[in-house]
Amino acid sequence: MTESSQRNNPDSGSGERTPLSKRGGGDPGTRGRTTIADGVVEKIAGMAARDVVGVHAMGSGLSRTFGAVRDRVPGGGKSVTRGVKAEVGESQTALDLEIVVDYGVAISDVARDVRENVIAAVERMTGLEVVEVNIAVSDVKLPDEDDDDNGNDDQRLQ
């Protein structure tokens, strides 16, 4: 075969031909990298934790107070990440949650349910392995207590 016919014939030379599916590096799902920000995992975990019966609020008293003020500011919006801290690695994440429970609920049951719900939601939505969910119960909401988030400090602020 001449040199020009070898260039025009893809089967010349080694005798092997690269299949079309192998072009560009194989499976499209493996091309490139996906990174997930801490804030994304925090939002998912915050929403999942709030869905659990017995969770009254998220965050400490101070963060809830600042959150109530921020909620009243136009465009401030409600922070779903309040009381949630995530550390995200390449394939794993760890979460710290601070919750307020309703009076009368079994705290250990609520904590277990929060863990289960958060792990299921984060792993399903992100594909990350949740290695731990630490839960700190910072307060108990008594039935006769007013919510900090309801703006009962308005009289004092006026």
Please provide the ordered H/E string of secondary-structure elements. Answer: HHEHEEHEH
Number of strands: 4
Can you give the helix content as a percent range? 25-40%
Radius of gyration: 26 Å
Low-pLDDT regions: 149-158
Shape: elongated
Number of helices: 5
- Mean pLDDT equals 80
| SS strand fraction | 15-25%
Q: What would you call the structural class?
A: alpha+beta
> Span from first to last CA?
95 Å
State the main characteristics:
alpha+beta, disordered C terminus, 158 residues, 21% strand, four-stranded mixed beta sheet, 5 helices
Explained architecture:
The chain is of the alpha+beta class. Helices cover 35% and strands 21% of the residues. It has five helices and four strands. Strands 1, 2, 3 and 4 form a four-stranded mixed beta sheet that branches. It starts with a helix and ends with a helix.
